[in-house]
Structures are given as structure tokens and as C-alpha cells.
Sequence to fold (291 residues):
Amino acid sequence: MTPEFIASYWTLAGNVVPLGPPEQEASPHDFRDRVEVAARLGYCGVGLMRSDLLQIRRQYEWSVIRTILAEYGMKYLELEFLIGWIAEGEEYAQAEIALDDMLAAAQALDVRHLKIGPDMHAKKWPMQRMIDRFGRLCDKAAVYGTAVVLEPVPWSNVADLETAVALVAGAGRSNGGLLLDIWHLGRGGIAYSDIAAIPRGLIHHVELDDADAEIRGSLIEDTINYRRFCGQGILDVPAFLQAVQDQGYDGPFGIEIISEIERHRPFADVAADAIRTARSEFAKIDAEREK
Fold:
């Protein structure tokens, strides 16, 4: 197959501070420059973090953002990362503010999906509550033709595929699905063969990267500082790709490079290495099939 790639926010962001203050998490590079680089390298889409989206909006009107994406042939736009949607009190109130920002973008632009995470404090919530809240998110996004993709995360309250499937399938929304990131499956000890148990059509997005043999620091520190390019770590990227394709996934693949080392390199070089190495992993599948 000839894959389509989305340059995730982190892959194009440059020297930012993941999980830091909004002004440090937002990219120092102009939005148009990033989109131009993505198009030149062969990406079909880009991703934006909410903090970055708010910064871009201080410079560009919605119409200009839409024109830039169209001018460079970006088929896909993804927005991230919503958390707190299961919670209550101030955490839930902040999630509602973030969601409103994302939905404003979905109304103005053609947004493929919103990326959302579970409870990152691993608090145990009743399944029915999570199903109801997820369904509500999907209904709000559906107004603008946007999907909602839930990403299982190993240190969260949705750390395994069984829980993730129960939540998303329980909501039963056609625009609600799973986001499978090979890094989170690998660090979470989830076998690629387990992907076969996911109902067909429930995988709505897939992300690629790689990981070192040893976890460095906490899982959070490892995930925001030490991800690797595809094929340069211990994860079996071709086996993962084969597993998601066998389950019927035929959409674009996000490439998510979050790395302290790479953040200090020119963002165009990082994005170039990211798509080159991802393409190499797809080529391995093609080569195997031709044997």
C-alpha cells in the first residue's frame, strides 16, 4: 500500500516544552512555514496542540488558516490533546474550555479528529460514566463532521485494549474510535496479536514511532523525551502495521516524534527523518509480501 502520513504536532513543533506552560508548549515556528515543510516532504496532514492553536489564532484568522492548509494540499488536520473530560470540578471545567477551543476550530476548519486521553492520574471511574462522557464528546464533534479518537495510555485508567474497546464500543458512535500509538502499546506490554480482537472499524487512527530497550525515568519522562524514529528502537513496526491493516485500518498514519534530542535539531530535518524512516518500515512489509 501507499500510506498517507500526518506530521503530528510534536514532529513539526521544534524546540518546545511538552506539558509545559502554554507559551512554552506552543511552537516557535510560524504555522505557514511548518505546513510548507510538511507538504514538501510528502505529508498529507498536520497536527496542532491546543496551546499552539491558540497562538496561531493570535496571528491568523480562521480563513487564512484554512487557505494555508488548502494551498499546501493538507488533506488532514488533527487537534490534541483533551484530558479531564471524565473528571469533575475544576478539572472538568478546564476540559470544557479546551473542548470549546477545539470545536471552534472544527467549525472553522476541516478537522479529521480530536485526540483525547483517559484519566492520566489513573483514577477509577465507572465504565458507564466514561461511556456517557465519550458519547457526549462524539455528539458534539459530529456536528462539525469531526471524529473523536481515544488513545489508551499505559499509566492511565485506560491502559489496556479490553477497557478501551469496552468504552468506545459501548458509546456506539460512528465518529468515535480508538487511536493506537505503537509506543503506548509497546510500553504497556500489549501484544500486537491482541489487535485482532478489536472489532473491525473501531480503529480510527494509528501513530508511529519507536522506543529504546530501557525505560528512561518515568513512563511520562520516557514518552516526552526519548521516542525514536521508526526502525531505530526495539518496537516491531512492520508487525504492528500488519496487525492494524489486518483489522481493516486504511486511513492515514500519524508520525509522532517526541524527543529531547530531536527538539534541538531543525524541525524540517526531524520531519524529513520521520517520514523517511516510516516509509522504510512499510517497505519491509512490501518486501516480505514479495518473497
Remarks:
- The chain has one domain: 5-290.
- The mean pLDDT is 97.
